[in-house]
Amino acid sequence: MTDAAVEQVKIEKKSNPFAMVISCLLAFPLAAVLLVHPAAMLDANGEYSHRAMMFIMIGISGGFIHGVGFIPQYWFWKWLFSPFLAWPLMLWGYYTWFLS
């Protein structure tokens, strides 16, 4: 009877601290550029690629979420904000930033 009253708490393994630092170091400069000087992300025509900016911002969000150690519960959010997806998107952001 006491088994029904006690919740089973699932303990998840924390992320690698080195990978968390990498996520933060990739996310902070991109977020700063987008907030302080967004014109640095313009393409050759002087316009924003809204599709690219959406994906880059998802990557930045994933970098911050992983970097601070937050672990989402739902599988979709775990996948969307994982470093496996966030890092390539942030690298795309750096490519866009330095290409323009």
UniProtKB/TrEMBL annotation:
Give me the segments passing through the membrane: 18-40, 52-72, 79-97
Keywords from the named record: Membrane, Transmembrane, Transmembrane helix
What organism does the record attribute this protein to? Acinetobacter variabilis
Q: Which domain of life is it from?
A: Bacteria
State one Pfam family annotation: Cyd_oper_YbgE
- State what protein this is by name: Cyd operon protein YbgE
